[in-house]
Amino acid sequence: MLAAIAARREGANVTLLERNEKLGKKVYITGKGRCNVTNACDPDAFQRNVVKNPRFLFSALSVLPPKALMDLLEEMGCPVMVERGDRVFPRSERASDVTRAFENELRRLGVRVIYNARVKNLLTQGERCIGAELMGGRSFMADAVIVCTGGQSYVSTGSSGDGWKWLEELGHTLYPPRPSLVGLMSGADWVKELQGLALKNVRLTLTRGKKKLYSDIGEMLFTHFGVSGPLVLSASAYAAELVPSEVTISLDLKPGLSSEQLDRRLQRDIDESGKKMLRTLLCGLYPSRLAELMPALCGVDGNKTANDLTREERLRLVENGKGLVIPLAGLCSLNEAIVTRGGVSVKDINPATMESKRISGLYVAGEFLDVDALTGGFNLHIAFCTGYLAGSSAAKGN
Q: Average per-residue pLDDT in the chain?
């Protein structure tokens, strides 16, 4: 939609081929229906939240930084507001208002929108893209074609990966679709026993060997399949292309305390309530369900009175409190992922215009590019800014 708006504003005649029966199906489900349209940070901070190929976005973010998108939405009649973490939402808190604003602008500009138009393949002449052919046989000829077919998560919204086949046939390098921003599976029984337990203000760290890939403080959730929640979703972005057995997730349950401070806290609790059973005593440190399991996870008898703890046992409790390891079995499926890792190699796309380096007149934007980021409005803005750059570039013939 934004590619079409940008191209039309540059004076091009634009036809938007929409596979679905309505526009913006994926927009409707973003931000739990509230649509986290962008993140109100500066471009440098934005790129730090992009996990895969952040430097590729330099030009797109220069053309349409978050503030410019916010102004554009306001201009199109969709007031926005900034919430915690600089996340930007429509003031109405309705994703449908974002789509409606785009639709109204498309209508005002006179963009031709054709619904239920599923593209079969791209039309080329030599090394130039000259149009697209629909499944029914109808063809559309054009001076430029912009492919915005998305990733392969949430297939019900129309993102079934059609673009992979088209561009591969035209000689582009395509990386296979993988889930990102998704829950992590664990085969450990104790993890599943904690199903439904949410932890706040814990530090989750993802490592590969001795290398720290991700570490942050926030919230997470134990589930029937393993773990999820904001910290886990972000960690999954760094584990998307790795073998589960190669990475380790550990939880610091008391990030505000050093190991020495946690040990002193535990000793103080023992001094004050040493006659209590250990699993009962630990309820003062952790949620009761976790406190019940902690002794066994540390190889200690939870029914033992706290006074009878050996120094070695106490130190094991401290060690696990500061680094409880969650065994990983893999990432959840692509259809459960918020975004798709993979797509067209950025080496095949000119970052200054979004035009293919292999086929002239062919532009690529959005999640179909091999670029993805953390949660917080970054992935949607990547779609918006690359779409805007592709549209304006295509119209100018860049």
A: 94
Whole-Å CA distances, 309 to 168, 240, 305: 63, 41, 7
* 152 pLDDT above the threshold of 90: no
Give the pLDDT confidence score for residue 244 in this predicted structure. 84
Q: Whole-prediction pTM value?
A: 0.91
Query: Residue 26: is it exposed, middle or buried by C-beta count within 10 angstroms (0-12/13-18/19+)?
Result: buried
Supply φ then ψ for residue 380, to 5 degrees: -70, -40
- CA pair distance 325, 23, nearest whole angstrom: 44
The residue length of the chain stands at 398
How does DSSP assign 53-112, residue by residue?
-GGGGHHHHHHS-HHHHHHHHHHTT--EEE-GGGEEEETT--HHHHHHHHHHHHHHHT-E
3-state per-residue secondary structure call for 241-292: CCCHHHEEEEEECCCCCCHHHHHHHHHHHHHHHCCCEHHHHHHHCCCHHHHH
Cβ atoms 256, 200 nearer than 8 A: no
Q: Which among 364, 361, 358 is positioned nearest to 398, based on CA atoms?
A: 361
**13 CB contacts (<8 Å, ≥6 apart)?**
112
pLDDT at 85 over 80: yes
Q: Which two tokens stand for residue 57?
A: 């976005």
Residues 286-336 pLDDT 10s: 999 999 999 999 999 999 999 999 999 999 999 999 999 999 999 999 888
CA 176 vs CA 56, 163, 219, 345: distances in Å: 19, 12, 30, 10
Q: Which domains does the chain have, with CATH numbers?
A: 2-180+338-396 (3.50.50.60), 183-332 (no CATH)
User: Distance (Å, rounded) from C-alpha 387 to C-alpha 395?
Assistant: 12
Cα–Cα distance for residue pair 309/267, rounded to 1 Å? 10
